[in-house]
Amino acid sequence: MDPVAVMRAARTVRDELGGMPGEPPAELRARLDPLLAGEGAQPSGPLAEAVVALVSQYGPAWERLCQLLGQDALPPEEPPAASTGPLGRVPSGPGAAERAASVIGRLTGAFRRRRRQGEGSGARRASPLPLIEAPAEVVAGWGAEVEVGLTTETAGAAPYGGQEPVELDIQIVAEGFEAPGGWRVRLRADAASPYPRAKVGLVATAQEQPVTARQIQVVHAVRGQVVGFGVRALAVLDSPGLLGRDNAPHPVAGTRVRIAEAGQAPDVTAVVVHGDRPGRLWWTYQSPHFVTPDQAEVCELGMRASEFGRGLAEQSLPLEEVGSRVAARIPPGFWELLNAVAGRIAPRRPSVLFLSQEPHVPWDLAVLQHPFDRSLPGFLNCQAVTGRWPLGGNRPELPPPARAGRRGMAVVYGGPHPHPLVSAFGARQVSPALGEVLALLGDPPDVVHFATGGPAPESLGRGMGGGAFVFLDEPGDCQPFLLAGACAAVAPFRPVGDGLVEEFHRRALAGEPPAEVLRSLRCVAPATAPAYQFFGNPWLTLERDQPAA
Q1: What is the pLDDT of residues 238-256, one digit of tens each?
Q2: pLDDT tens across 138-184, in order?
């Protein structure tokens, strides 16, 4: 990779950000500018690596960077962790570029190992890609025919692994469009039609600007379980006289559709994607218990999602006040579906999964106006078994894993005495020195615990091999761990003082679902414990013998 070419291409990407869809361009520009300003003052190689680490987290910008550099300019074996959601963190401060370069290298190696393992089993080749066939340009007021479904890079294997025919539901979200025939289609995948597709008519609505960047997003689900996601950018023009200026179709970014992996679906899945304006989110729902509405609901935060989330985390508000503010932003359709599901499955508690492009707002802290169980705190994550999972890029895969291993534990801790997890569970204690932590994450045990006072974990998760369960004592960004292959993660939304760690690990290692363990622990220590968030499948369990990928 030529560092000079990378920096030159990154400047072009920075200048073109205003025409790209979604909320992140302004945030990407704010983080990219300091790196570009460092050219000439810092070593060019590590600086270019840091730029790649940053841009790779925003799908349209990453694809534009690759286009400018050519297909061979970046490692062709490893597509980036592209995301149309908000950006993860990039190391900053003295030596940041060197740390980023080291981490990116380790991440690439881990992904290559995971890919080789997947290809060895044949599962990777059998996973189709989301299909979104659409023109690069459409005119406001005119109809546009969009084809959705499944496609593949490899002929042969059926996407459902030879099982019985599968009914695939595809939900379409497209701000600035109308769908006269509806926003959802159902396709049948079987031996005769392993890669089905269907045409949907969309009409672009009137707009204020001559050219507006829009995007079409699709959510693939089987029996209420989300198994894939795709997004495609296009331009909406206010006049047919502008046609022909952008004829090149934009590529589809997103997660492979893993039909064969569809297992027990959460009782309610809320899919949260970015709109075309900062602070606007669109919500759609999936459930195995009900047919859910096909039209997305809008959520207006009134500010960028990152600002809204940081404000909740940094203000010294009681958790109940935080929960009330979050609940007020959740669309009414979510509460209607949750209440209906809770009534149908009672006395069992509902499980809820948030698949979200934005990682900042603690939706699981929302306070219910009418709790299902009035003997428990009114937080959603006490009333229901909740989980969260990033959405938008080609990693992490969908659906979230339902099983993980529980052999071996490491605790990152630099105290003068052994950490309590060493004696309680035989954990291997690892120094928080950067080199030792990176070595650990390159080939981690099944459970990795970052104790209080350890290094900034969000910058280290990028070196992780696949499959570990991660627990953070202090607030941190779990998304890089999940992008790097972690099966699940736990971290507090803001600092907590409750000593729940040993009890959590004892019960989770004994076979209880970690999400349910956290839910029950939040209820017995409600002062700050509800701030603990679970990132993963609500049904995930840790098992002695982890099944092969």
Answers
A1: 888 888 765 667 788 889 9
A2: 999 999 999 999 998 765 556 665 568 899 999 999 999 999 999 99
**Strand-strand pairing, 143-151 and 197-204:** antiparallel
Give 466's pLDDT tier (boundaries 50, 70, 90): low
**Residue 15: what are its φ and ψ, rounded to 5°?**
-70, -25
Q: How many CB atoms lie within 10 A of CB 453?
A: 12
Spell out the residues 6+ positions from residue 398 whose beta carbon is closer than 8 angstroms to its own: 226, 227, 228, 229, 255, 258, 261, 355, 389, 391
The H or E element spanning position 420 is helix 420-425
d(CA 486, CA 440): 13
Q: Which residues pair with 269 in a beta bridge?
A: 286, 353
**Digit-coded pLDDT (tens) for 94-134:** 444 444 333 333 433 433 343 344 334 444 446 899 999 99
d(CA 123, CA 125): 6
Residues 351/372, Cβ–Cβ less than 8 Å: no
Residues contacting 440, CB < 8 A, separation 6+: 410, 412, 430, 448
**Going by DSSP bridges, is the β-strand pair 403-405/541-543 parallel, antiparallel, or unpaired?**
parallel
- Give the ranges where 228-315 is alpha helix by DSSP (H): 305-314
Q: Which of 193, 52, 177, 51 is nearest to 128 (CA)?
A: 193
Distance CA 431, CA 454 (A): 9
Pairing of strands 166-173, 184-189: antiparallel
